Each structure stands twice: as structure tokens, then as C-alpha cells.
Amino acid sequence: MWLFYSFAALLLFQSLLSLRGGFRYLRFFRRELRRGPTDFTPFASVIVPCRGVDQGLRENVAALLQQDYPAYELIFVFDDARDPSSCIVEDALRANARAVGPLDINNANERANMAGGASVNVAARIVVAGRAQDCGQKVHNLRVAVTKISTASEVLVFVDTDARTRRDWLRSLVAPLADERAGATTGYRWFVPRARAGICSHIRSVWNAAIASALGADTRRNFCWGGSTAIRRETFDRLNILEAWRGALSDDFALTRALQRAEAPIKFVPACLVASHEDCTWRELFEFTTRQMKITRVHAPHLWRIVLASNLIFCAVFYGGIILAASLALRGESFIGPLAFIFIIFALGACKSGLRLAAVKLVLAREGLRITIAARLAHLSLWTLTAALYLYNALAALFSRRITWRGITYEMKSPTETIILAPSTRRDDQS
């Protein structure tokens, strides 16, 4: 019994610290969203790696073409011209009447001034990168696309095809780079299950939300999320990010590591929290979450150890406490102590989730999105299940470094050594 109470006290302390972090998270969102973007809008190259058809892809591409930004280019990069998403991208380009070709920067700036800064100056083109040989396919696509950007580009922006960006996304993401000391800016993803989504889609949203709240005001602890990241071209070249990506599976972990080594701060921009309108099956849930944890173990083992230890303690105390209380009740002994600890820990966690939802709601409301009752209940209650899922993911990562991502099977030997085991024609995996 004393062992249970010892670990329960430790978990209670951790829960209180987590709750304090929730209040800080909400205050940070409120403060940052009041500021609004600056007028720093240099010509930007927005690179969109594509493979397979994401849910809502057509709408996601259309959103990228309708940014409120003076002049920018969109580069959609595929490993294969026959990729099923290529026709959707091409249809979206035609539907939005955007030119696929080089942009006349001088003429674009002149037209932007005449239009009062309206977003009428975007060019889009498609690049075929070919098959990767010794790194992740996404990393290979990015490395090729960077060599194709306009000479006028001052900022590189990376975005995933499952992200539904708002009209002010690009402007908000680039604005903090007006400070030349900034290393990079980043947003993050928030899974928005559809109206009749199953419980597994809500579990994935809750699981992912825990990572979203790890970002905040501390630029030294932030990380880049490759689905919504911007960096000055000069910084990208100076830190030799192309070389940092060599042999890597994860573009964002490699970029984060290069920035941290250079002590270049990473600014999290709450306004660039993007919605991913996707559902998943149970198989996709376990594949996605385990893949993320395997990548984390290879690229950031210290984070993997924290996830393993913290969720092991939680599951031992929370679920062990339930078993202990039940066994005491069956023996006719007092079970109030263990049950009280379990209730307090659950209440603190639910409060933390509520604060996180309040912060995210400030951003989603700008898109006209509302957090449904089902989503609210899921985030307030299912976080106890995601702790068990995190523990499973971390343990699975202990025994294997092999993943399948977008139809390709990889073996991660190290952060800079990736072996492609089985290139596949299957392209419908979730990112």
C-alpha cells in the first residue's frame, strides 16, 4: 500500500505541474492572438510534399492558393508523376484559376500595391523528385524542391497536404521572422474528427493534443512541425539544412536539431495551429501513433524516455489504483484512499484538457469551426486511455525501429541513416 501512495503522490505532483502548464498555455494563446501579424511579408516559397490522397485534399490545396499574402509561390513535389494526388492538385489549380509557372515578382508586387495587399499573386508549379534512395521519401522530396525555388525567395515554408490553412496562415507564420535572430517559426496540427467519427478518431485527436500543448512561449524547448514551418532562406543556407536532412527519415526532427545546435530560437505561432479534417480506423490509429513514437525514439531518445517513464507511472497508479480499490472493496476494507487519489488525478487531468481546449478554440473559431460536444467529452475523458496508448507506443518503439509510412517501409538505423526496405505502390497511408 505504501508503494501505491508513494507513486500516487509523485503523480499528483506531476498533475499539478501539468495543470499550471495548462493555465500558461491558455494565457500564451490569448497574448499571441491579440498581437496579430506584422507587415513583414517577403516573397516566400511554400513547398508542399505530396504522396497519396489525404482526406479533404482538394479543399486543403484550395486553401493554400487563397492566402492573404502579397506574393508567394507554391511548389507541389511528388516522387512519381502518376501519384493519385497529382490529378487532384492539378484540378484544384485549374478550379482556382492560378497560373502554373514562374511568377513575375516585380509585376506581382505592383499588382499587390494596387489591390491593397490582396492575395492575387501566387504561382504554382509541380516538381517530380523521383524515388528516395537513402532517406525518407518526404525528406527527399523537400531536398529536391528546395533546389527549384525562385531566386527571389527570402523565406522557405513547409506545409503538409493534410493541413487546412486559414487565409492568414502564411502571413502569420512568416511575420515573426522579421526578427533576424529567430531561427524558425512553427504551427502544429489539431485533428478535427468529422461529425459521425468513431471513437478511434477522437482518441487520435486526444493523443495528438498532448504533443500540441508541449509547444509554447519557451523558444528553447519548442520544436518544428514539418506540416507548418517557416525559416529564412539565409538561415536555411547558413545552417546547411540540406546536409542535416541527408539520410534522415524525419524532416522536422532534423531541422529542429540543427536549429538547437545553432541556439537559434523556434517560435511557436498559435495562429498557425492548423486543422486536419480526418478520421481513422483502429488500424490507422495504432499505426500512426506507434510510428510517431518510433521516429521519436530514434531522433529524440530523451523525449521517448520521458514518454515511457511518465506514462508507465500514470498507468501503474491510475489503473493499478482502480484494481486496488476494487480488491479492497471485495474484501470489505476501506477503499476511500486509493479512490480519492484516482478521482483527484482524473479531475486535474480533465481540467488541463479543458484549458487546452479553451486555447485551441480561440484559433479554430477563426475558421468558423466549433468544438463539438462529442469532441469536448472525448478530450475531457479519453486522455486516460491515451496514456495507456502512449505506453504501448513507447514499448513498441523499444523493440523495433521499422515503420511503414505512406506505403514505404523503412528501417531507422540512426537519425542520419535510413534504409528503405520495401518501396510500395500503396499511397493511402495517413501522415
Helix proportion of residues, in percent?
A: 40-55%
**Number of distinct helices:** 15
Major sheet size, sense and barrel closure = 7 strands, mixed
The largest sheet has its strands arranged as: 3-2-1-4-6-5-7
Element pattern in H and E: HEHEHHEHEHEHEHHHEHHHHHEEE
Mass-distribution shape: globular
- Please count the beta strands (DSSP E, at least 2 residues each): 10
| Cα-to-Cα separation, first versus last residue | 44 Å
Low-confidence stretches: 98-119, 426-431
Secondary-structure-based class equals alpha/beta
Rg, nearest Å: 22 Å
Structure description:
By secondary structure, this protein is α/β, with parallel strands linked by helices. 51% of the residues lie in helices and 16% in strands. The protein has helices at 2-35, 57-64, 84-95, 105-114, 137-146, 169-174, 199-212, 233-238, 241-244, 251-261, 282-299, 301-330, 336-364, 373-381, 383-399; strands spanning 44-50, 72-78, 122-128, 155-159, 184-191, 228-232, 266-276, 402-405, 408-414, 417-422. It has a seven-stranded mixed β-sheet, sandwiched between helices. Strands 8-9-10 form a three-stranded antiparallel β-sheet, covered by helices on one side. Residues 98-119 and 426-431 have low confidence and may be disordered.
